[in-house]
Every structure is written in structure tokens, then in C-alpha cells.
Amino acid sequence: MTFSPELEAKFAKMIANYPPGRQKGALIPMLLYAQDEVGAVTDEVIDEVSRRLNVPRLEIEEVLGYYTMLAREPRGKYHLQICTNVSCMLTGGEELFEHACRKLGIGNRQKTPDGQFSLEEVECLGACSWAPAMQVNYDFHYQMTPEKLDRLIESLRKLQ
Amino acid sequence: MAKMVTFTIDGRQVTVPAGTLVIDAAKQAGIDIPAFCYYEGFSVQAACRMCLVEVEKMPKLQPSCALPAADGMVVHTETPKVVEARKSTIEFLLTNHPLDCPVCDKGGECELQDMTFRYGLGESRFLEIKHHAGEKQWSPLVFYDPARCILCYRCIRVCDEGLGMAALGLSYRGVAAEIIPNKGDHLECDECGWCIDVCPVGALTSGTYRYKSRPWEMNYVPAICTHCSNGCKTTLSVRNGEILRANNRDRSGINGEFLCVKGRFGFDFVHSQERLQSPLVRRDGRLEPASWGEALKVAAGRVREAIGRNGKFAVIGSTRTTNEENYYLQKFARQGLRTNNIDHHRSGDFITLVDALTGRTGALATVNDLYTCDAALVLGSDLAQQHPLLAVQLRANWRHHRAAVYVVTPGPVREDQYAARSLRAEAGSEVERLEELREQLKARKNLVVLYGASVKGEAVRRLVAFGDSLGIAVKYVCLVDYANSRGALDMGLLPHLAPGYRPVEIPGMHLDAMMAAPDLDVIWVVGANPLEGGREFAAKDAFVIVHELFLTETAQRADVVLPAMSLYEKNGTATNVCGEVQRTKAGPKVMGTKSDLDILGLLAAQLGFDLGVPSHEKVFEEIRRTVRGYSVPLPVLATGGAAQAAPCGPAPVDAQAELVRPSDDTLFTSGTLGKYSKRLTQVMEAPGRLFQP
Amino acid sequence: MTLLAPPHPLEKRVLLRRFDAPRTEPVWIDEYLRTGGYEAIRKALTMEPEQIVEEVKKSALRGRGGAGFPTGMKWSFVDRKSPKPKYAVVNADEGEPGTCKDRILMGYDPHRLIEGVLIGGRAIGACRGWIYIRGEYREYIRIMDRAIEEAYQRGLLGSNVLGSGWEFHLSTHTGAGSYECGEETALLESLEGKRGNPRLKPPFPASSGAFQCPTIVNNVETFCAVPDIILNGGEWYASLGTPKNGGTRLVCLSGHIERPGVYEVPLGMNLLKILNEIGGGVWKGRKLKAVIPGGSSSPVLKAEECDIPADYDSLAKAGSMLGSGATVVLDETTDMARVLARLMKFYAHESCGWCIPCREGTAWLKKISARLEEGIGSERDIETVDRIAQSMFGRTFCPLGDAAAMPAMAIVRKFRGEILEKLAQSEAFAPVTGAQPLAVL
What we know:
The complex is a heterotrimer. Chain A is 46% helix and 12% strand.
């Protein structure tokens, strides 16, 4: 399989960042960036990355089960990641997460039937001083409240 | 001489080479430090934390499996602090363990049970719901139960480091972490079951044994594997005459705990529905069941008649019968039937080597030499497929001692992964490439050369000459293929050589000549299948007597078929590819069969041949007395050891190299036996081809 | 929004000195150069590598990632004469709950980090570096990538750094979701394309790190402190803090505090002063109950324990740690059982599973503390939490086990009464925790 020209260029550059013979170093970023483009780490992605980096499939499977950002199944178009770790919890993160569940009608690691939204309760996002925090895909949203979340979801729905 | 360090462990002064791990040093001092993940010979994990010990001046408990002993170090292995840590480790392990010991295959021989017995708390404080994941079947032979798994990573290491297969990995994390197979939901591997064997708990179980028995219900019989020539000791777990499993957990024998798929799982041919359990006699053109008395009478009658009219005999011996049977068979042929028309399927040119090494001692390598040699040269063999034990030994040697392994083969082999150099050469031309390796080989301390069936005749002499020219000690292994191929050669199942490679006065017909001779009166085939693949005896009218386990092509041609025992069912000795003689003991019992020695003994009695008592002890005594190289020490054999027979000496005959034909068996085939092993045919996979990447 | 407030008068901005006015855009190369950027590497290139290490030693700079190991000493362990290539790795896997400072440094002053790595790389004779950034920080990866690109264009990175003949390459490396990868050897495993399982030590990264070559791994903030140390001297930097605790540090205030945010303070500034004066005190006019002073792994301090200088040694003396500088404030209404449950859930989720005490211990702690949060349990469960934590502490393969055990022990010991009270008031049915039948085996 081939990726977009931009991603191919990124991969070419990325692979050169590791010492000769140690290109396996690029494995995890490659999987993540391929997932961003393809939607998930599909069998095709695994085979392709396996071929390009000369890494056995088993070693890719080992990594896939380990890193929480890597997903075998596609997530929603908007993947809502709400932090409930301590700083966010103290400022309403758990309530925010529960609110999102009710609002979207889905639970943790689930996807709305239309595939637009998926939800995940995540560990510390490193935004503790602006808690409660969340990410929609890679975009941070800080000092969230249920009301702000409602508005965010509505605006995302309008984007569709 | 390695630098030595002296340290104190539990009040005892111990001196060990620098770099020795405390857990190993403790063992040498007779102190047993418990551990799960530590496994001798494999990489250190320090994961189970069972082997933590207290070291003076170190604030934290230290994993003794990762701690090299140092001068002046003071170690305590059984302090209250250490015991408390072990108790808590056991408690942790049991939190998510299903505790299904009553139905677990491992029950009774489980390291977790044993350790719980030793360090378990009397009380269970874990009140929560256990993490659970369901059992998975990875292959017909390998099942994995993640709930029982304690993640010691032994399986991953034996597969990767031990075999170079790397079929197992680790996925997920935290309590959900579990072992995963290489093909998503299943395994594609050697199916050797080593992972099952080393599993300290019942997480990996075997498709052949699971839910069959309790370990204390079985008898354990030390046998020699009947499949390939490596001569692994396989301990048969036998209940009511049936083999339920095979392993070698006590690491006795030349193979330690290693067994390949054939040795561990390929025993099921013994209990195949297709085993012959009654003699067959041809009546009106059809083979029909007969009593032993009747069959022997018919056979003896025809033989007596042929002797009476000075008829011609041909005897084809087996590569899977014991030395005693082979010896007795050639005696039966030469002294009873008065013929030198005796041969067997030869799978390596050992005869030329015997002659070329005349006058030398210590020129034949043992299995252990493969682990200790400084360099090894493999010619024309896919070792991992055809000689799995030898491959594992070489790999361990490379892993532990950085031995240099050189490979000259017609295609890719697994040894390429770590070989110092791999050359590709067409079968038969391997020796021509040796000059390219000369400089590298000369720089090594010593060398073991292993050559396959494609190196034969003059090439063997050139090989020995090349070895001599290196100026280092060189030992050889002629890679014959079957369980007692070496024994068949050594015991004189040859038309021109009597036992111990002594030329006979008037050589008889070799195998090809027998097949082509139109005028044979009696053809006697013991445990061989020369008619495989549609071949025929040119002697259409010959009376054919066959000893066999199954109704093979040859048995179908027979006039009398005598149901024989397999190697697992009888007592005696066998000689492996390295010439190591080992004793095998009868385990299972298949009704209606007899050993080939018994059959020959009964016929000898009926025919009035005076061949000595047909008991394996008596015959072996005679072999030790008379066969060149076989005066091996009895105590070694009696205690389950291996003693090398080195029959090197003049064999001034034509080696008949054209008769050398490799079996071309892979890990998953084993001639006739393999065809009747459902397990082997079931699991045959991609790796089951020779010289494939 | 801008994540950085204008400086508070009590702050001492060294690393953040380019942020006296609120800003949304990073300092790109021209502005960086204009404001004294890359002067330190120019100076460092004129120094012997030993001198650089010596200067850093003098500065009493300690690792800002959590462990607080003296940076100069760490660098001095690298065998510069080794024939192998040497590497400098930036730990930007910021994941310790409560910590949000590295993103500020990368997001606003990316060249400071590049300059710091250059100096570190120079000190050990490295030929290459990686900035290992957690995957969620895509925004900051983009910024760092652009800054690295700029540095290459200006000859600050590449085959001939500033014409010195020294070759040094730098790139970002994207993580993919694992707290454990913040542990330096797990990070190196991850950098090599493997699971983030930590490595057996020794060998330490200084002798066998990335790709089995000598390597230094330092936190973003640690590297960012280096340029000023080189420019102004180690002694100057040391003088900013307290003995053996040199310089300034970033403090991340979060939780129940009036003015949460990232601030730069001299090491040794009184913890209460930081909270009350810079942070504006506990929010909503409430009283302080406790403080987590150095990220979730640091043992919690009760309000009455907080009147201490916030530096490595003082906090260690108080039975806690400065850690990553993440200070989480808990007000009087905080349910400590809930805090315990949330933290244990985190560690159970992040345990890599390699060793038994951490794998099983974190999972067990998570389950009991979740029960306690619901008010289900007895005094004995509280004891069990303490005992599990003790059984993990100091016995796991890597520090993650300790990181889970320390807060667990601190909470159940310091807030035992509160949790007991909660259990007593709860109407939930408590499981029988008296004598249990003997274990099955």
C-alpha cells in the first residue's frame, strides 16, 4: 500500500533518523502516523510497515497491545479523550466524562453509530494547570465544563 | 583462567569465577534460591522477583538472578525479610490465578504449586474479582491459558534464543499482559513444544496430553526417540500400556530437556489404528490374518526349503531397530542363511569417513562437542529441519560461547541467522567451496565438521584432507538420517562389511542389486520399505517375509507379514548420528506384536540356527566383545548415559557411495512412522520444507 | 488561549525569561537569536567537554523529570572515548499526573531546548539526539519539528555545527501512549521500536543506552536550564537555589487552587508561599487539606506538613519528593479515598506488566481502593492497601512500583481516620474480612 505523498515524505525522513540497521526505531511513530491517515492500524498497515522496516509481524503486534494510542479498529471522526486523572478529577473531569457519555449515548472506548464520535477516558494529558482538559483528536481543550463540552460537540456536529 | 571472586552466602564462603550470578553460585554451594523467570542458559529477566535476596550494605533486596557475585559480598538468602518478600510474591501471583489446580494438567508437577507449598500464606486476603482471559488454541499441539500464566517469559526465550524461531511474543500490559503467537490467532512454528515443557505452570498445555492424566498415574520410561538420528532421550509417560506424553523434564540424556515435534508429539503412530496386530499370511493371493505359530511355521518352511535347494536370499535391514536386532539379523543372514546379501537404506557416507580416519581417536564429535567446539562447519544439511538437536546445540554454543558457525548449503537455512559465514553451493559441490573458508577456519581453536548425504565418496576424503590441512583439531559428524542408521552401519547390515567395518571375503548384493536381481528365492525385509513409491522387486516369484508395524507397500507385497514392535516398545541400544550408544527401554505395549529380536530368535530356533541366546543383554555383550569401537563402558549405559562408539579404522572396500540416499525428512516427516503419526501430519506447516528461507 | 500568565513578582524567570508578556506564538529562530539565543552553544564549542560537564556539576542542576539525579554527574558517566556513537535523548514524555511544564518550554521556546541538547551532546561527544515527545503532544511535535528545521537551516544542527566541524543531528520521536515510557530505559526501548518495558540496570544508559550506545537521557526542563548555566556559570545558577539544589524550577500548580498555572521559582522557595502567594491560595476560600508536591507518585503532604522549603532535599526529609514539580492542591472537601482510587486506577493502567509485584500489586490496589471509594470495605482493607504497597515498595523491576506504592502508603496512613469514617457512614455492605478459609493450595 502507499500513503499520501506528504506522509511518504515524512516516513522517508523519519526512517533516516535512526542508525543504519536500526530502522525499527521508526516503528511506533510510523504506526501512529499511518493510523492518523488510514484511521486505524489495519492488517494492511501492519504488513506494509513490517515490510518497510523489516520487522516481523509479531513484534508489531507486541507493540500494538502496549501503546494506548494505537488502535486496530477505526475510532470516530472526532475522538474525544477526556482526562480524569487527579488534577482533572479534582476540577470536574470525571463529571465531564460522565456528561459526555450521556450526551453522546456511548461509553468508554465506544463509537456513535454514525461513526462521528468516539469517547475515551484517558490518563493525564499533561494539561493539569488548565484542568479539566480534553483532546479532540490532537486538539486540546482546556478548563472544560459540561456546557463548554455541549457547545464543542454541537460545533463539531455542524462541521460534518 | 578466569578471575575468581570470593563472597559469603548464608555464612558460607564461596569462590566462583567473576561474573557468576549469585543464584548460580548459590546452587553450586547447595543453596536453592527459588525463581520462576530465571532459566539457566537463557537471558536474565529479573521479572518474577522470587529470587530476591538480602545483600549486606544494599538497602533494597536484590534479584540474585541479575546480580553478579563480587568479592566480599555478603548474601543472605533466607532472612525474614526475604521470606516475607517471597510470600508476598506468591500472594500476588495467586491474586489473579484461577486456582483450578484440581483440573489443571500441571497439578502435581507445577512450580507455582510447589512454591505455594513452600511460601504460601495460610490465608487468602484477595477479595476482589479476578482478572480473567479465556483459553486459546494456537495449534493442534499448543494451548494457552492466559489466566494461569505468570509471565515468566521462559516460553518466549526458548523459542527465540533456543531455537531461533521467535514465534512467541508479549502483548498488552499490566494484568492484561499475555503471551501472543506469531500469526495473530495461531502459531506457525517448529511445533516442538519446548514452550509447553518449560512452562512452570499450566498456562501452556499440550494438545496430546491435556486433561488425559495426572502425573502420578503414569510410569516414566526412558526411551530413545525413534524418529531422526540425533538420539534424543525421550521419557515416555505411560499409563496402561499407552504413551500419553513424551518429554525429558529431568534433562537426562544428551539432549537435556530439548525435543523436537517428533520426539515430543510424534509417538502416536505407536497406537495408530493401522498398526498390524496379527501376522498375515498370503493365501490364494490374499494376505489373511494368521496366528504367530502358523505364520512362523510358513516362513520357516519356505526358508528351510530354499536352503535345501541352495536358494538365493536377500536381507534388507532396518534403520530403526536396535543394535542388538541389527547384529542378530546380520548373524542370522551370514551364519544362518549363509549369505552376504544384506543391506539397508544408507543415508550418509560414513564408510568412507571410517576409512579416512583410520588410526585416529577422538576424531568423531559427540553431541556435546557441538556445544563446546570453537567452530563448526555444516555442509549440505538443513540442520534445524533435519537434525534439530544438533542445530539447538550449535545455537546454544554460539549464544553462550560465541562459537563461529559456517554453513555451506544449497539453500537458506536457519543457521544463516547467526552463522559467521553462509555460502550457497549446489548439493554435491559443497566441498569445492571450502577454500573460501580456509583463513577463517584456521584462526579458530578447533572445528567440528558436519556433512550431509550430498557429501560422499571422494568428497569425504577431500573433506578430511582439508580438515588435516587446517592445523587445528577437527572432529567429524556424518549426518545419517534415521534413529539407528549408524547402528545399522556399525552392525554390518552391509553386503561387503561385517560388524565393525571388517570386509567380508565374498561381498554380497547391495540394495540396488537385490532390487534388480530376478532370481532371488527369499527376500527378507525387516522394518524397511524398499517398495515405497511404486518400486518393485525384480524377483517376481521370490517369497517375501516382512517385519513391519504397518501394511506398507513392501508389506503388501509380502507372503508373510510379521507385526513388529517399534523402538519404543522394546529394550536394547541404539547408536545416534554421533556414534553415541544409548539404552532404550520398553514403554508401551501393543497387543499381538513381537520385537524383531524375538521374531528372529523364534525362527532361528525353528530353523535350527545356532546364533546364541536372542536376548538383548546377551547380544549386546557379544557386540561389546566383538564389534570394533563398541567396547563401551556398561555403567555409563546402565545409568542412562551415552557412550560413544568410535569404529574408525581401515575399511578397505568400495564405499558404494551411490547407494547413499538422504531421507529428505523435515521436522514434520519421518518416513513410514511419520505417515502414521496423525499429530505430525496435522501440524505440518510452512517451516516443514528443506532449504527454504 | 495562552497557557502562560504574566510573571508573578515572586517568580524568578530564567527558563521562562522570554515570556514577560503573554504570548501565543513560539519564539522562532530570529527572535531567539535576537534575544541571546545560541550564544551558549557558541561558548560551549570553545570549551573542553570536561569543562561543560564541570560547569553543570557546579550548577547543582538536578534532573527535573522526577528522580532529581545530579545532571553533571550523569553526564560524567559517559565514556567519551568509547568507539561507539553517543546519543543525547530528551525525555519529553511528560506524563506524571500533575505535570505540564515541558509543553510550555517546547511550545514557546523550542530553540532553548535545542540549544540545551546541543550543549549536552557536545559534553558527551554525541553525534545525534532525539526528542522523545508523547504522542498526544502533536502540537508541540510540530513546533519542535519546525524549530529543528530552522536550526538545520542556520547551520546550528547538521554535519558541521556552527562551522566547528562537529556533526550533530536532532529529530523528534513520537510516542504513542504510555506513562511507563517516561522511565528512561523504557523510553529507550520505545525509541528502538519496542514495547516500553524497562531494561535491567546495570548497564546504565551512560554505557549502553539507545541502540546499545552510550546515551544521556534528560528531561526537557533539565536541558533547557543548561544554556544559562553555560552563559552565566554554574556558580551563578547554583546560587539561585539552595545548596545541592541549584537554580530555578518550573512548578505546575493544579487542583483546588485559585490561580493554577506554570510558574518558575527558585529552588527552596517555601511551599506554602508558592501556594498562597503565587497560586493565590486554595480556591473558593476553602481550607487546605493536603498537597501532592511533586507529581502523583510523590507521597501526599498534609496541610500542616507544607510549611517547608520546596527543594529536593527538604521534601525528601519530609518523606515526600520534589519529583517533576507538579503540585496538586487538595482542599478540605476532597475525598481522599477517591484520590487514592483514581491514582491506583492510573498505575494499574500504566503498569507494563513485566514484573509480578507491580503487575499484580497495582491491579489489586486499584480494586480495593475502588471499593473503598464506594464506601465498601473495612479497616482491614485499609491495612491491606498499606501492606500491598509495602510488598511492592523497593521490590519491583523499575520505579513504577514505588511510584504507585508511595502515594498509596501515604494516603492510607495519613488519612486513615477519614477513610474509616467514610466506611462507617456508608450503607454499602462490607464483605466479610475476618478469618478466611485456608488458601486452596
